[in-house]
Specification:
Helix content is about 20%, strand content about 45%. The chain is α+β, with helices and mostly antiparallel strands. The longest helix is centred in the N-terminal third of the chain and has 13 residues. β8 and β9 form a beta hairpin.
Length: about 110
């Protein structure tokens, strides 16, 4: 459903470990309304997995996606970049028909 790169997995693990939440939490990927192009990504740490959620285990790290967001994220790639030009999680989404200049929102 979603590809999570080694860089993203390492960063998620590091952030959760800093807070002592590696065993209890996962990264929730969500698509919500808003932004310049209509939809935007929301990443947060969550310890609740509901019936409508899909849970992926990638190298011991949980990634949680609700079924509505999964429709927009199927085939996406979650990466973490840390360069002089940008730093943070980056989602390459083949379902995005248009993205805004800052890359934080998209249309599908």
């Amino acid at each position: 459903m979603i590809e999570v790169t080694n860089e993203a997995t390492e960063r998620i693990r590091a952030l959760l470990s800093e807070d002592g939440k590696l065993e209890s939490h996962g990264l929730r990927m969500k698509v919500i309304g808003g932004g310049c192009s209509g939809l935007q990504y929301q990443l947060s740490f969550d310890d609740v997995v509901r019936e409508i959620d899909a849970e992926l285990m990638v190298d011991g790290v949980r990634v949680i996606v609700d079924e509505k967001s999964a429709l927009y994220l199927v085939g996406s790639r979650l990466n973490f970049v840390d360069t002089l030009e940008e730093s943070g999680f980056k989602i390459d989404n083949p379902n995005a028909s248009n993205t805004c200049g800052c890359g934080q929102s998209f249309a599908a």
